[in-house]
Amino acid sequence: MTTGVGTFGNSVLVLGTRAEQKDRCHCRETGTRQNQPAPSRSQVEVDTVNESVARIEAIIGRKVKRDIGQMTEWAKGNLARAAEAIMNTPNAHVGIVTGFYIQHAEPPSPETDGLGGMAHLAAGLANVGIPVTVITDTPCAKAVWAVVDALPMPVNLEVVSTTESSVLRLRQYLETGDRPITHLIAIERVSPASDGKPHREHGWDMSRETAPLHLLFDDPAATRRWYTIGIGDGGNEIGMGSLPKEIIESGIPNGKVIAATTPVDSLIVAGVSNWGGYGLLAAMACTKPALREVLLRYFNRDMDHRFLSAAVETGQAVDDSRVDNPGRPQMSVDSMPWEQHAALLEEISAVVASQAR
User: Fold this and answer.
1) What confidence score (pLDDT) does residue 164 get?
2) Strands 155-160 and 183-187
């Protein structure tokens, strides 16, 4: 459910040690025995958290359609950094930018990917008392609103028009509010490429139907800086600009055309962007065990199905859009049935649960 729906510009909301090594060598040489102290419990806990998050990072980084091996290798460790950045910040306020519009779909609508990951992040953060503001543009507003409205608790939703001035006004608002944004996450949100235009994976120009929300992440004129996180799977999303461009150009089809230029502080690469949202929420739960149960209260297959159903049935979000297929509303994400995503969600949950034992 939404509690504050803002509009900017002409937007219309549709529905809503070395010393130790030397000492050990001396012990072996003299035949004396040195009693090494056991690792402190805190260090054991740190190691356990790191291991769990690394396992989650490996799960979400599985290859699906594209060979993302170079990208996931480069981004390794960023999942932990992103989770720690949020959970270790007092008075955090997290913004989540999403919505990847497919103009030639039937009907024209954003794709299903990104929406579920956004919803799980929003539900978990809001449930521990961290304010959340979801951000999208008018072309994606109907589907994003539908998913936000399906959340088990209210969060804010801000919608901009497709103009630059609308985005900049939103940025000023987010900088100067009573509780300004501290972290901004983009999940499955397109970035401009080297030609200044956002492109679909086929290379098609998306400029006319896409608000320049990358300016919330990479605006040299900004008066206040927040920690930025990007979640993507295809090389053309906000955050992928952190990667050496050669990785995208050589490893992703049409990479020279579509490679993103917008960088972030922590880039999370996933086989499917929704999985990156799942992984970040789970990593936050690993990082703060005392909050694990509350963070993950709604992280289950039933809620995931609820989010996707809202996106498709109410929001008319689409999937399976290709050059030869327009894409239509259906209960799938990245051409995989919902059940596959639910199984991966449960696999991630099992990793978090094993840390608790």
Assistant:
1) 97
2) unpaired
- The answer as to whether 315 is a domain residue is yes
- The yes-or-no verdict on residue 161 having pLDDT over 50 is yes
Residues 52-99 have pLDDT tens digits of 999 999 999 999 988 899 999 999 999 999 999 999 999 999 999 999
Mean pLDDT of 143-155: 98
Strands 227-232 and 94-98: unpaired
CA–CA separation, 279 and 274 (whole Å):
9
Asked whether the predicted pLDDT for residue 17 surpasses 50, the reply is no
Q: What is the biggest distance separating any 2 CA atoms in the chain, rounded to whole angstroms?
A: 80
Question: d(Cα 12, Cα 8) in Å, to the nearest integer?
Answer: 9
* DSSP labels, 163-223: SHHHHHHHHHHHHHSSS---EEEEES-B-B-TTS-BB-TT--B-GGG---GGGGTS-TT-S
> The pTM is what?
0.90
Compare 30 and 276 and report the one with higher pLDDT.
276
pLDDT at position 169 is: 96
Amino acid at 318: V
- Which secondary structure element, helix H or strand E, spans residue 110, and what is its range? strand 109-110
Tokens read off for 74: 């480069």
- State how far the Cα of 118 lies from the Cα of 352, in Å rounded to an integer: 19
Closest CA to 189 of 118, 104, 130, 293: 118
| 35 falls within a domain | no
* Non-local CB neighbours of 133 within 8 Å, separated by 6+ positions: 93, 94, 95, 96, 155, 156, 157, 158, 174, 181
Q: How far apart are CA 149 and CA 152, in angstroms?
A: 8
Measured CA to CA, the distance from residue 227 to residue 221 in angstroms comes to: 16
Q: Is residue 27 part of a domain?
A: no
pLDDT tens column, 173-223: 999 888 999 999 999 999 999 999 999 999 999 999 999 999 999 987 787
What CATH code is carried by the domain that includes residue 150?
A: 3.90.1640.20
In a domain, 252, yes or no: yes
Find the domain containing 261 and state its range: 2-16+49-356
User: What kind and span of H or E run contains 109?
Assistant: strand 109-110
Task: Report the run of H or E that residue 321 belongs to, with start and end.
Answer: none
Number of structural domains, the chain? Answer: 1
